[in-house]
Amino acid sequence: GNQSPSWAAEDIINYTEPKLGYTRDSPGFLRFVRVLCGMSSDERKAFLQFTTGCSTLPPGGLANLHPRLTVVRKVDATDASYPSVNTCVHYLKLPEYSSEEIMRERLLAATMEKGFHLN
């Protein structure tokens, strides 16, 4: 339970479900992949806690996460908006930010702030 969650870009691309405005090759989803790959061990744990309610991945990693993490485009969102989640179904509503820096900043702020779980 204390091991650090790890993933590679291929894992994220293969084992997450981009939907409703995102596809595997949409710029917003690819930014998300790069942001996740750039996270430190603690940031990865916080991200998993935020999106799945658990700070670790099952044995076998993202491939064995059920349900799979679904990433959808949060409509009517701006660079000032924050992502929100439905933890039970591993559903992340992610605004299509204009840059990786902004996405990283907003995603990390949301993962550190427990109040975003209910949006």
Key traits:
Hect, E3 ligase catalytic fold; alpha/beta; EC 2.3.2.26; four-stranded mixed beta sheet; 13% strand; single chain; ubl conjugation pathway; HECT_dom
General description of the model:
- The protein is an alpha/beta fold and 119 residues long.
- It has helices at 9-15, 27-37, 41-52, 100-112; strands at 16-19, 69-73, 84-86, 91-94.
- It has a four-stranded mixed β-sheet with strand order 1-2-4-3.
- Strand 3 (84-86) and strand 4 (91-94) form a beta hairpin.
- Helix 2 crosses helix 4.
- The mean pLDDT is 92.
- Pathway: Protein modification; protein ubiquitination.
Write the layout of secondary structure elements.
Elements: H1 9-15, E1 16-19, H2 27-37, H3 41-52, E2 69-73, E3 84-86, E4 91-94, H4 100-112
Parallel strand pairs: 1-2, 2-4
Antiparallel strand pairs: 3-4
CATH architecture: 2-Layer Sandwich
Number of domains: 1
User: Main sheet?
Assistant: 4 strands, mixed
Tertiary shape: globular
Overall pLDDT score: 92
CATH class identity: Alpha Beta
Would you tell me which CATH topology applies?
Hect, E3 ligase catalytic fold
Q: Supply the CATH superfamily name.
A: Hect, E3 ligase catalytic domain
What is the H-and-E element order? HEHHEEEH
What's the quick description here?
This protein is an alpha/beta fold and 119 residues long. Helices cover 36% and strands 13% of the residues. It is built from four helices and four strands.
